[in-house]
Fold Dabb family protein.
Amino acid sequence: MFVHHVFFFLKPELNQEQQSAFEAGVKSLLPIKHVKLGDVGKPASTDRPVIDRSYSYSLLLVFENLADHDAYQVDPTHLKFVETCQQYWERVQIYDSETV
């Protein structure tokens, strides 16, 4: 398995309409055919010193392998999301992992 975990740090000045547009955009990535499992979330209410809750949204995608991940990266839906929604974030942090 190949796991792609993306953390979005949205601009603090976004209004509700812009936040909704971002949320719709990121959710549009879930049905891409190469995605085996996907989830969009916000920071949980857990409160422990080791938990980083500084991000706005997370996108967790699981692929069968690296080739599926690479195909996802150039999928038109993904490219459209980046093009239309990058205006909403200040920073993106990505963690990729492969099953051991």
